Each structure stands twice: as C-alpha cells, then as structure tokens.
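Blinded run. Sample ID left blank on purpose so nobody reads anything into the name before looking at the predicted structure. Input follows.
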Amino acid sequence: MEKLNTRLHNENNGLDYVLVGDYYFPTLILAEDSCPVGRWGNMYKRYLKEHHPARYQALLLSGRLNTYLADTDAQAEEQLELLTQQMAEREGVNEELKATNQMEWAQRMNSIQNRAEEVVQAGLIYR
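Blinded prediction complete.
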C-alpha cells in the first residue's frame, strides 16, 4: 500500500492540508494583524453566517474575513456620518436650533440618526 503525503497544497483554493489519521485537514493560520471589527462589521458577519454561509466560509478560509468586515464597517460609518449630516442640513437641524431649543434639537437629531442607521443597514449590511 502506498504511503500518503503528510502535507498537501491545493492550487484551486490555495490552502495547505496536513494528514491526521485518514483525513486531510486544512492548516488555517490567522493573520497576525487582525483588524478591529466594529458594530457594522459584526452585524454584517452575522448576516453572512446566516444568509450566505458559502461566502462566509470562503472569506474565513482565505484569511480575508476580518479585513473585509473592517472595510465594511468603515464604509458603513462613513456613510452614516454623511447621511446624518445631509439629513440635518436638509431638515434645518443646526447649531442655532441647538442653542434655542435643545430638547427639540435632540429629538430631531435622534430621529435623523435612527433613519440614517436604517438606510445603512438596508444598503450595506442586509444586501
């Protein structure tokens, strides 16, 4: 009987495998420089796991998941900030309103923030 190689490299997916007993297991090494993943990145990770498991596994096995999630998180934060600013300008919520009527300013800013978060969720996270 032929002796099996203890290590293999698959050119199709770029992964290395090690022989353990009768099975080859991928040798997965996490990247040293793992990027911090924030609120939006974690939300998108959960969405990928539940609704796109194949894509999630591909990103995880290729070692690009954390970078991808960090990029998504940064895009979401940037879009949220831009939307909040644009909505506030359009609706006349400014520093003058803040100085004259703080309660109304806070209510309107909270409303704007919530609506902007819904837009980001629909556009970037749950796509």
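Unblinding after everyone has recorded impressions. The first strand starts at residue 7 and ends at 9.
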